[in-house]
Amino acid sequence: MLAENIYEEDTGGLSMGKSHPELFLNMMAGLGFPLHSFDKVVLLPAARSYRTWLDRVSYHRDWVIGAAALTVFVEGSIKDRKELAEPSKPKTAEEIETLVRHHPLVKHYRLSPDAMDLIRAHQLVEAGHRHDAYDMVVNYATTGVQQEAVLRCLKKCLTLWHAYRDAVAKACGLKEP
Fold first, then answer.
1. pTM for the whole thing?
2. Which of the residues 6, 29, 50, 155 could staple to 164 if both were Cys, CB 3.0 to 4.6 A apart?
3. DSSP labels for 95-132?
4. Do 99 and 123 contact (CB within 8 A), yes or no?
């Protein structure tokens, strides 16, 4: 599962034939962002801390801890519990196009559906993906020490992500209600 996920992210070989970073940049170009603006991004301090942590945990630790950080936390969503209880089935082309047409970037920012291949790729390959991610971590984090390390890692991910999210909100001028 992990190798398949990496292959898809890096090549798009199971979906749209382009890497997910390339599909993301195509989506950003559709929103009017020049591609060169992504060449030398200067991260906010909280973003740099979060990114440094993700790099460190994915490069220098037990693979299952890095997999937990990237597949459970980074790729996870508020919908994970529902997805684990009722795994999604592959979507039809019509269902995917309906999701694309109703996506917030299309509805609220007028992004052309033609620039939404990243969303299409995710829909093509992610049925049951959440279940696979959790199953991989649970089945390979077999010792109490490993399980505690996974929990500590995920808690640190959450703490750093909250700091990152709050820093972005502040940089955008958003205030707490």
1. 0.83
2. 50
3. HHHHHHHTSHHHHHH---GGG-HHHHHHHHH-TTHHHH
4. yes
